Amino acid sequence: MEKILIIDDEAAICSSLTFALEDNFAVKSTTDPLQALVWVKEEKFDICLLDLKIGQYNGIEILMELKSIQKDLLVIIMTAYGTISSSVEAIKKGAYTYLTKPLNKEGLYSIIEQALKYQKLNRQVEYLSKELENKYGYEGIIGKSPLMKNVFNLIEKLKDVDTNVVVIGESGTGKELVARAIHYSGKRKTDPFVAVNCAAIPENLLESELFGYKKGAFSGAASDQIGKFQYANHGTIFLDEIGDMPMPLQAKLLRVLQQKQVIPLGSNDPIELNLRVIAATNKDLKKAVEEGVFRQDLYFRLNVVEMYLPPLREKPQDLPLLFQHFIQNYNAELNKDIRGLSEEAQECLLQYQYPGNIRELANIIEYAMLMAESSYIQVTNLPLEVQKKSSIATFSYNQNPIESLVGLSIDKVERLLIEATLSRNEGQRKKTAKILGISERGLRNKIAKYKLNE
Ligand SMILES: Nc1ncnc2c1ncn2[C@@H]1O[C@H](COP(=O)(O)OP(=O)(O)OP(=O)(O)O)[C@@H](O)[C@H]1O
Ligand SMILES: [Mg+2]
């Protein structure tokens, strides 16, 4: 039960407020502000109802004293008609809001409810920021799920040795981030980290990019050009999308790795290499080997240690931390001051599946922050795609879900229910019909009726 503290110099007000609130809250009241300060030092309250005019005391000073004892105490000022200006001053000094006397029960309850919701979000934000500070992560990689803890352990073990690593994971799971973390936390950190996207460079250029060339090696080679390998010497070369490397080049890469030297095109002088190789792929390399599109010998050479990065949907525990992480990042970048997500928006984002993983999540947060008009991101600020995938969250998030439907027609509710159930089941009609207790044919008709497949 949340705790409410009432401070008013009129005993009658103390007792009538206590009477109005005590069924739902743990209430303590006093006419003596000094007594109140003693209590606040002893126990933690959630909300304080404070009269600004309390006998010989200055209410603003009491307010400041209360806040200095307990920073997250929400103080609601009770003010008589005509003293609004002092209430405004109180808000500047940290009061949550003010109410004008005489108070009615509904008004009081709705303000308290709103204040508690606000406080809950604030406490959550505080908690998450602390967790982030406590380094729930490694070198900017955020995560506390067991899967990510394994990743951190592995990075720790690998950072100071030269073992070849292949990082495997779907798009946007942080493969490059992990490769950089290995490099920048290890002994080679003062030498270059050079990333090569094997899929993005045209096949005929990849060789010259990687190995470099001498002037005149081919038409267009107007001067000597250092290759990525040489450039990365003493540091780390990151071969991204290695699964897309053409077969002939795979043979050449293997030779470089075996001999630890590279010969630029058109040159006879090998360059000795001392570097670490980290490769990444979103493909199943073993399968590629079986299919004959990836060399087995190269596979064995690169894949001494395999590091698997789980897709986001396999580590939902990390979501709240990641939300907070990206909100902080984009606050700085976009010059915003977003505190967090509304409960509904958070729920919506927790339900979403993130086919594009963390990159997609980052984009969603950035978008929502651009759209947000208050200090908490609302469901309506999220991309439609995300809202649609978890439509249930957009209308049923009161304590009593049925209550929030009052005012809608039966048809509208039916439509919402079908839409939400379909989306929960990823569009599978058979499953959806079964849950709804109707035939598949019936479901099809309703989908057509409500135009849900448009
Ligand atoms: N655990 C994490 N904590 C914080 N940010 C992360 C995390 N994982 C990924 N990111 C961020 O998500 C984005 C995508 O990460 P990255 O580029 O490393 O993914 P990738 O696996 O290489 O993706 P692709 O296969 O599409 O190249 C980057 O902005 C990265 O900083
Ligand atoms: Mg990448």
UniProtKB/TrEMBL annotation:
Keywords: ATP-binding, Nucleotide-binding, Transcription, Transcription regulation
Signal peptide region: none
Record keyword Transcription present: yes
Lineage top rank: taxon: Bacteria
GO biological process: phosphorelay signal transduction system; regulation of DNA-templated transcription
GO molecular function, one term: ATP binding
InterPro entries named in the record: AAA+_ATPase, AAA_lid_NorR, CheY-like_superfamily, Homeodomain-like_sf, HTH_Fis, P-loop_NTPase, Sig_transdc_resp-reg_receiver, Sigma_54_int
Xref: SMART domains: AAA, REC
Pfam families for the chain: AAA_lid_14 (PF25601), HTH_8 (PF02954), Response_reg (PF00072), Sigma54_activat (PF00158)
Function: May play the central regulatory role in sporulation. It may be an element of the effector pathway responsible for the activation of sporulation genes in response to nutritional stress. Spo0A may act in concert with spo0H (a sigma factor) to control the expression of some genes that are critical to the sporulation process.
Name the UniProt record assigns to this protein: Stage 0 sporulation protein A homolog
Organism: Clostridium aceticum
Name of the coding gene: atoC2
